[in-house]
Amino acid sequence: MEKKYLIQEFEQVTPEQLLPRVKEMKKGGYRLGQACATKQADGNIFVMYSFDLDHVLHNLKVNVPADLKLQSVTGDYWSAFIYENEMHDLFGITFENLALDYGGRFFKVSEPTPWNPQN
Amino acid sequence: MGKRTIIPFGPQHPVLPEPIHLDLVLEDEVVVDVIPSIGYIHRGLEKLVEKKEYTEMVYVIERICGICSFGHGWGASASIEGAMGIEVPERAEYLRTIWHELSRIHSHLLWLGLLADGFGFESLFMHCWRIREHVLDLFEKTTGGRVIFSVCKVGGVRKDIDAATLKEISDTLNALKPEIKKLTDVFLEDASVKNRTVGVGVLTKEDAIELGAVGPVARGSGVYQDIRLTGNGAYHELGFEPMIEEAGDCYARTKVRIRELFQSIELITKAVELIPEGPIDVPVKGNVDGEFVLRLEQPRGEAYYYAKGAGTKFLERMRVRTPTNQNIPSLVKMLKGCDLADVPILVLTIDPCISCTER
Amino acid sequence: MSYVTKSPWVIHYDGSSCNGCDIEVLACLTPMYDVERFGIINTGNPKHADIFLVTGSVNEQNKAVVKQIYDQMPEPKVVVAIGICANNGGIFRECYNIMGGVDTVIPVDVYVPGCAARPEAIIDGVVKGLGVLAEKRAAMDNKSAAPAAAEPKAEENTETEGKEEA
Fold first, then answer.
1. Where are chain C's structural domains?
2. Which of A87, B252, B322, C135 shows the smallest number of beta carbons within 10 Å?
3. CATH number of C9-155
4. Which pTM does this prediction carry?
5. What range defines the domain where residue B105 resides?
């Protein structure tokens, strides 16, 4: 059995390229594994979408613009609503056209959006 | 069309050891819509990366969940090792694999018990948990803990298992086989049990793929998916084929887990035969500067561990995506159209782990 | 009116525990430790329960739930905080969404430390809780025997006897 877990592909895309790229992934039969945001040391946030095809991982990274707005991928991958709501509640990122929007009530936290750079 | 009623399910509910809340929209007795809401156990432990050094973070991540705790410890260590480019000794990989498969056995037995409790078969529940205690004894003997082990660390494992104990592990498990068989036959053969599971909560293969189901939920719907196939740990040498069932109902999901129980025993037996001699850890120096995404097949399915460092002793990000998180959309799909009385069983068949989901 | 002396019914709620203590609570009921043989039953209904077992610490979302379960339980009642998280927040103490131990929301009578607390320790904690239950009952009896006497002083929980090394 080959060690497929060692294959690490990271692809940087711009916010405008994200949706077209995600549509391609969907056509290519990729499965959405997860999405998460990371706040870097310089305060900027990037979002990473991980896709899987035949047990090989492919990650898309997109830097979040200063207005903290991104297009939702729930149009292609409905199950992403969990991750996008989570990122909204923890990082303060707003996703446009979110298929199932909890309106900030997905996680009820005592400290709102703890990772938000604007806090 | 009947009148619509909304029934809140949880967070404190007799079948749920953990709090999850579902708003069930009913028409008469049939569920037509489900709105899941979580957040009762959200601790925000991922933010502890700012306060705990990367070596300590392993123990925090391990405490995401007390059932798949070993896997979380392994995932956190291995993702940090990946980011640092550390190669772990073979023996450590084997030991991790053995403990991980033991976790799977204890987790599946635990789940079978909860399922039995869910459909009201109390004594079956008790027997599942009785057998599970033997597995916990093995854990206690080799790691010192029953549910939280803290035996994985960055660079390897903290404890070795000597040859005699390794043999005892495989002997004990193989001796348990007939007992497990007797027990699981009840789940697979008993008419009254099958009444509750066969044809209930069908998730088609298309839906499972579309909604991104993972683990036994996906395999129960005929999806060829098992992260052990990526060859992490010792799996690339042990080799194995995932357990696939086609029906997609509760019965199929139960059967997948039962077959995996026996498969795990086989894997451990084989690992005990093949385990090489050698060191169990390598020294770890320096700070994490890089990133790595590691996936593990937890008892509940695929889990993601993403470690990213920026050259300091604190990580920039330690992200864990757990299997239940990914299975919630499938659960919502399954629940639509089922009877109210089947809701507890259906919630149980995705083997929900809420502590994992919310972290 | 008679009260429970040796076989309390317990109710369990998972605050924000990692599950470790939860499954150990369940393990107490199953054949290896088997407290059910003493008539101790895990009930899902707060109104049936004498002892409230809380695992994990309290957060913003569940503090109302914990409080509600506590309020619904009939007097006399005992709260046992199981595991270090329920005691004071444990490893998660510094997390942004953790308020601290269970005693930040409801009065706790017995503390069982451990990560995760072992079944033996949990059983010890419940046995200790029985003693507290008896004291509370005696206090209630005194109160009803002499209704005109002293104000609701007996209501006060007998409070912790420090952290019991269970």
1. 9-155
2. C135
3. 3.40.50.12280
4. 0.86
5. 4-358
Task: Give contacts of C44 with chain B, Cβ < 8 Å.
Answer: 12-14
What does C65-123 look like in DSSP terms, one character per residue?
Answer: HHHHHHHHSPSS-EEEEESHHHHH-GGGTTSTT--BSGGGTS--SEEE--TTPPHHHHH
Neighbours of chain C (3+ CB pairs under 8 A): A, B
CB contact under 8 A, C96 and A108: no
Handedness of CA B122, B124, B130, B136 (dihedral sign): negative
Contacts of A38 in chain B (CB under 8 A): 308, 316-317, 319
Q: In chain A, what are the helix, strand and coil shares in percent, each to the nearest 5?
A: 25, 30, 45
Which DSSP letter does residue C58 get? Answer: B
Is the backbone peptide bond immediately before B323 cis, with ω within 30 degrees of 0?
no
Q: How far apart are CA B241 and CA B221, in angstroms?
A: 16
For chain B, the C-alpha Rg in angstroms (whole number) is 20
Rounded CA-CA distance B347/B42 in Å is: 19
CB atoms within 10 A of CB C49: 23
ipTM entry: 0.84
Chain C residues in contact with A114 (beta carbon < 8 A): 96
Residues B184-211 pLDDT 10s: 999 998 888 888 888 888 888 888 888 8
What domains does chain A contain, in order, with CATH numbers? 4-96 (3.30.460.80)
CA distance B186 to C149: 62
